[in-house]
Structures are given as C-alpha cells and as structure tokens.
Amino acid sequence: MHILKEITNKTQWNNFITNSWFKFYSFLQSWEWWEFQYLGNKSIERLGIFKENILVWAFQVIKVKAKRGNYYFIPHGPLIQWDFFKVLADILPTLRNKAKKDKIDFIRFNSTVENTIQNRNQYQKLWFINAPMHEHAEDTHLLDLKKTEDELLNNIKKKDRYYINRAIKEWVKVRIDNKTDHIDRLIEMHHKHAEKVWYHKFSKNFVHNLYEVFWNNISTISTSYNWNVESILMTIKFWHTCVYYIATSDIINHKFSPNYLCQWEAIKKAKADGAEMYNFWWVSPDDNPKHPIAWVTKFKRKFWWYDYSLLHAQDMVLTPKYYINWLIETCRRVKRGYYYKKPR
Q1: Which of 33, 106, 260, 273 could form a disulfide with 163 if both were Cys (CB 3.0 to 4.6 A apart)?
Q2: Residue 278: how many CA atoms within 13 Å on its side-chain side?
Q3: How far apart are CA 26 and CA 44, in angstroms?
Q4: Going by DSSP bridges, is the β-strand pair 71-75/54-64 parallel, antiparallel, or unpaired?
Q5: How far is residue 34 from each of residues 2, 26, 41, 279, measured CA to CA in Å?
C-alpha cells in the first residue's frame, strides 16, 4: 500500500528526481517550479509517495483558485516509474480527501504517460475524463544531445543548414547572457510578437520570476544583424533536459534567417551545459497548416529527431461546479482552434 506524505527538503526532492530514471520529465516537477509558483501567489504542495516509509515516487500539486472552479493541478506528474496506475489508484483516495477539505471541484493530471489507448482506458477505469483544454505541452519534439555536434548539424536538411552557415558568413552576431537589457529585450519582442500573431503572452512579472528562481539554469540567446535583434529565445535546464521555453523573432533578413542560427546556438549551449535531451516543448499534433501553432511547429521539426506525445490532460470531477469550468474551457479551445492527437 502506498501513502502520501509532504516533502519539505529541497535536496531530498531534487536528488530523488535526478537520481531516478524517467522516460520523460521536465522542470515543471523541479523544486524551483514550486518557488516560481509561490512568487505568483499560488499554493503548492510537494508530495512524496512512500511505501514502507521509503520514498518511491513524487509529484507536486498546485492549488488553483478561480471563479470557474477550484482545482488541483499536477503538471507533468506524478513521477511514477512503474506500476503507474496501481500506485495512482492507491493514492487517489487520500488525494480526494485532501481535495474535499480544500473545497476543490476537480483534480487535473497532465501526466507524463504516453498517448496510448491502453493508458487512456486505465484513466477511465479510475473515473477520469478528458480535460476540455491543455495547460502545458503535451505533444513535444525531442532532440538527443548525446549525438556529436557534427551529427546534430548533419541531421538538419541541407537547405536548412544553409541558413545557419549563411548567417555565420554574414557576421550575424550571437549573444548569450542574462543581463537586464537582454531579458528586457526578450520580453519586449515577445509581447509585440504575441499581439501580431495572436497567441498567449507571458507577463513581465512571469518572465522575471522565471529568471529569479531558475537563474543558474536559464539562458537567454539572441542573434542580431546590423545591431538589430532579429531572434531571441530562453531555455530552462533541469538535470539532463533543456527546454526551449520562450522565443520570439522579428526577421528582416530572410535570406539568412537568424532564427536558425539562434536555435543552433541554443542547442550547442544546452549540450555544453551537460544536457542530454533538448525539448522543443510544444508542437502541433499533426502537419495541419491550420493548427494555431503550425508555423512554429514546422520550424522546430526542421531540427531532426522525433516527436513524443503525452496523453491529453485528464480530469477527475469532484463537484457539479466542474461543468462550469468545462463549458468555459471548451469555448476557449474551440475559439482558438486547438485539437489533440487521439491515443494510438
């Protein structure tokens, strides 16, 4: 029988995650993510799953309070290495009891299990339903950094390598640092680009809080030509995985688009920092040009390796108020044009 206990020791938490082997994990289950949520006035608990007083698995629970409904949100977790659904079934009664005490309307798991029919059926047996909308990356594109730099470059199609080599020949300037003016430039360009292409933008406080808590593992990389920044991005590294998290561009010189060189420099930086996997984060579930992020997905997939699909977020309904949230999120999803890959 597995039981839940709160973990309050940072070293114990991060050491457990980084010393375990998980097929997929991200910074959303790091101790630093709790600190980031705290700065955003969110309530969060780090829970360990124990068996015979030995920590075997772990996950973080964010308490989200909203007019449309209060809920527990578990992003990219729980981190359970084997017997996932058996362990989940053991801990759910305790989690439901905690939720009732906290006046929670539903529990949402954005877990790291693969997007298979078998996994979907297992969630259904535990009385979960598909969430009306995603909250974090579910379809991702991954690059194996254990390859040599030459292998990584040669795996990019010749016509796309051209942009990288041409940018170098044209003396496109690369900058890698977290100085204040560089961060402010990222925020400024991100906001302008979001308004232009109509996607969700991160607030200035959100970005600054990320830098505050992930400072030692966050990188800002930009490329500029004739002193004009044309491409800029931010990556977050957690253990052996580096995530390409925020990026924006204002391309003027399309003949040697600095986007390619900027991304290539980010990949090299991640590899030099000891990352073994580069996660391009969110991509569309297919090649449909009408998907809201089809344009950026096409670019990400040019850095050849493979897509990895997580099961779509799953909700456990606790009170009738959930259906208010379901209606609001469904309307948002339809309006924005999102859809999700079916389990295979």
Answers
A1: 260
A2: 27
A3: 17
A4: antiparallel
A5: 24, 13, 11, 21
Contact 344, 196 (CB under 8 A): no
Region class of 103: left (phi > 0), else alpha (psi between -120 and 50), else beta:
left
Q: Is pLDDT of 340 > 70?
A: yes
DSSP, collapsed to helix, strand or coil, labels residue 198 as coil
- CATH architecture of the domain covering 3-137+310-336: 3-Layer(aba) Sandwich (3.40)
Considering the entire predicted model, what is its pTM?
0.92
Distance CA 204, CA 259 (A): 23
Nearby residues of 92 by Cβ (< 8 Å), 6 or more positions away = 126, 316
Distance, first Cα to last Cα, the chain = 31
Q: Is 140-307 in the same CATH topology as 3-137+310-336?
A: yes
The residue extents of the domains of the chain are 3-137+310-336, 140-307
Reply yes or no on whether the pLDDT at 197 is more than 70: no
Residue range 292-310, pLDDT digits in tens:
889 889 999 999 888 999 9
Helix residue ranges, H only, 126-245: 149-154, 158-169, 180-197, 204-213
